[in-house]
Structure formats: C-alpha cells, structure tokens
Amino acid sequence: MRFPDRRQVEQYCGPTTVYHVISGILPWVFFLVSVILLAAGWKQIPDQVPMQMDGKGNVTSWGSKGTLIALIAVYAVVNLTLWIIGYFPRSWNSGFRIRFLGRKLNSSNTVQNYRLMRDFLSDMRISMSLLFAGELLLVSFGSASPLMAAAPWLVLVLVAVPMLRYMVRLFLWR
C-alpha cells in the first residue's frame, strides 16, 4: 500500500491551505518539544508523578515517572494515526446523510463534505497534540503548580474546541 500524493487528496477535499500545512507540522513540533523538555529535565522529575485527578484538581492516582515514557509512546501513535488517516479521504465516507439541528445538510457537494472532515481531522490533530504535550509537561514538572487545579478544565477546553468549531461550520453550511 502506498500513500496517495497531495493531488489525489485535493481531488477529494479541495485545495490544501496554509491551515492544513500548519496542522500537519505543528503536532510534530509539539511532540518533539515536549520529548526534548522531558529528556532535559528527567533528573528533576520526582519518582512519583500524578496520573489521575478528580474534577477539582486533587490527585487520585500516582504513578512512576517511567509511565511518562508510555505516555510519549501513546502520544506518538495517536499523532501518527491521525496523520495517516488524513491521506485516505475515501475511507472517511461513512455513508450517512449529514443532519444537524434537525435539518438535512446538502450532501451533494462531496468536495465540501470531505473538506469539512479534513478540517475536523486537522483540528483534532492540533487539539490532541496540545492535550498530550500539556499533560506530559504538567504532570512531569508542575505537580505542585497552581495550574494543576485548572488542568481538568484545560483538558475539557482542548477536547471541546474542535468539536464546537466543527458544529459551527455545520450550522453555517448551506
């Protein structure tokens, strides 16, 4: 199996924009920066790091700093998977008609359908990268930080923003 070139993806999704290029590069930059910072500060990381928190930011579970390496591996797999999915737009077709707030959206424009999905994947890549990078760095170096109390809300915002952007685009789509 070989990856389609950009022209084949653009045939389905429309032209590649600066946003798509940035969303392809930025997640890997976040990944590399967080891995470099983690490696540089490895000796300063305590042996026990917070792994789970409740809604108020109180630590409910602790883990060894070795689990951070597993978190980096998961981070890399998620990044790679979302990047690969972006090269196969034909696999995105679910066969469902798009309905939003009780109205059927015009699904005859397949390029626009695929473009919406491509934009959603781009948003998710950036969001997941911010989420993993923030969690890695916060858990590693900020366990006593006041940011730790705001971490559950930060996670919610990072996950919800792409979905909200996608829903607004569906609502405005004619």
Account of the protein in words:
It is a single chain. The protein has 174 residues and is mostly helical. It has 5 helices and 4 strands. It has a two-stranded antiparallel ribbon with strand order 1-2. A two-stranded antiparallel ribbon has the order 3-4. The mean pLDDT is 76.
Secondary structure layout plus pairing:
Blueprint: H1 6-13, H2 18-40, E1 48-53, E2 59-64, H3 67-85, E3 99-100, E4 103-104, H4 110-141, H5 147-172
Antiparallel strand pairs: 1-2, 3-4
Could you write a compact summary of the structure shown?
The chain is mainly alpha-helical. It has one domain.
Q: Outline the low-pLDDT stretches.
A: none
Mean pLDDT: 76
Total DSSP E strands: 4
Q: Using the alpha-carbon principal axes, give the shape.
A: elongated
Cα distance, first to last residue?
37 Å
